[in-house]
Each structure stands twice: as structure tokens, then as C-alpha cells.
Amino acid sequence: RAYWKAQKAALKEKFPDGWNPMKKLSPDALAGIRAIHQQFPDVYTTPVLAEKFKMSPEAIRRILKSKWTPKPVEEIERQERWIERGKKVWARYAEQGIKPPVKWRKEGIVRDPIWNMKKDEREALVAEKKAKK
Predict the structure, then answer these.
(1) From CA 28, how far away is CA 33, in angstroms rounded?
(2) Measured between alpha carbons, how far is 121 from 118 in angstroms, rounded to an integer?
(3) Three-state SS across the chain?
(4) Model confidence pLDDT, tens digit, residues 44-81
(5) CA distances in angstroms from 80 to 29, 35, 73, 86, 87, listed in the order given
(6) In terms of pTM, does the model score above 0.85?
């Protein structure tokens, strides 16, 4: 069997649903991982980077193996997509009552004012709303 076929079969066995890591890193973080590994390969090995970035060694291996670099137009689009992703993620966090960082608050992502109340006042208001339904 050709090497690539064996590799493809091994990856299919390892990841039956395809590769979809839980944690996604920004394009800047990916570039940073590649840069520090290139400068200090004996210090920043794959396992060390995996531990520092709290990712799987497989994800770090794939990042380091990748040689693709975006064209300037693609890079702008990637940055815009990353910003949109950040807005969605922090909007979800804001719904849960987590206060977004200043960067996202300037973008208009704020949590419900009910989260600014004291806990017992907030619980009383929620209970009152439930009673009305």
C-alpha cells in the first residue's frame, strides 16, 4: 500500500468523525506557536507546546507541520472571521452573565443589566417573571 493510503486509513481510524479540535486558536496564536518552535525547537517541543496552550499534541503537531500561509487578501478575511467568531463567543458568555472584556463591550456586546443586580434581587426578579408566566 502507498504510504499516504496507510496514513489516511490510520487517521480515519483515529478520528472517525474527522478532525475537529475542541479548542480553536487565533491566526496570531498559530503564528506564535510556529515562531517559538522554530527559534527554540529543543525547548518548545510538541508536548511542551501542547501543555502550555492546553491543546492535544496532535493539534500542535498539525500546526507545526503546516506550511500554508495566506495571501494578504485571505489574511484580512481570516482576521474578520476571527473577530466575528469572538463576537459570537462573547455574546454567548454575556447571556450566561459573564462580563465581556472591554474590547467586546466597545463592540456592543454587553450582558443583560439583570446581572448587575445583587444576587438575591436578581433571583427575586427571575422568580417574579416565572410567576407571571
Answers:
(1) 9
(2) 5
(3) CCHHHHHHHHHHHHCCCCCCCCCCCCHHHHHHHHHHHHHCCCCCCHHHHHHHCCCCHHHHHHHHHCCCCCCHHHHHHHHHHHHHHHHHHHHHHHHCCCCCCHHHHHCCCCCCHHHHCCHHHHHHHHHHHHHHC
(4) 999 999 999 988 888 899 999 998 888 999 999 999 99
(5) 15, 23, 11, 10, 11
(6) no
Distances from the Cα of 96 to the Cα of 33, 93, 99, angstroms: 31, 5, 9
Q: pLDDT band for position 20 (50/70/90)?
A: confident
